[in-house]
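Appendix B. Chain record.
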Amino acid sequence: MRTHTLLAAAAPLLLLLAGCTATPAAPPEGETYVSAPETPDAAPGAVEADTTLIVKTIATAPNGAQLALEMRVHQPIAFDDIANQTLPGAFVESCGSTYNADLFAAEAWSFARANISAVPTAASTSEWPLGSPIGVMPTPDGLPIVGRGMLREDPSATTPCLDAKSVTVPGNGAIAFGIGDDSGTFRGWVSYRYGFSAASGVTFSECTFELTAVGGQFGGGEGWSSVTDVSDCSIGANS
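Structure tokens predicted for this chain:
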């Protein structure tokens, strides 16, 4: 393992987890996250202006299947940002009555999202096998997370927003996470790790990280470390 310090059930909501900015602005056009993406092998498009961090790696399964994994984390928004209510709406939709507008206001929540893609590589020799999930970070360890698209969670979970999300098939998806006492400062996101963890038998290669200027503006990189080994491609606050 190599460790480095960084220097620098309602109907699906078709527009859930759409593009967001920290100041009121229309979300980027063309971003939708549905339960069954029409183009499961589509590569991500142009990097959005509010992107804070990009994590990439290649996952290889024992049967020769490969997925190019990419995560794009976006800058946090305030709970009351009237132009971007899809993220708090996702929590109300998916997490039960515990999460509601009164709680978000009383605890001054911020919300952020991360887009995730898993695209078969040209070198892939088989379909991605069942039983080889790729874990997504951050994990819901005290951090409620909503998932959409091809991401999966334990179907028996009684608290879906506190259940880990994983990639089990090619496709596109997104997570949204909420952080209390963060509206106005928008630095809470730096206290977590971002990236992927491999199931037994799956290996990672070509793990890379890119902290954007926006990410640095919102505190990214401060006290962070990264891990790039065969089972962990992640960056962020130390565990």
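Further analysis of this model is presented in Appendix C.
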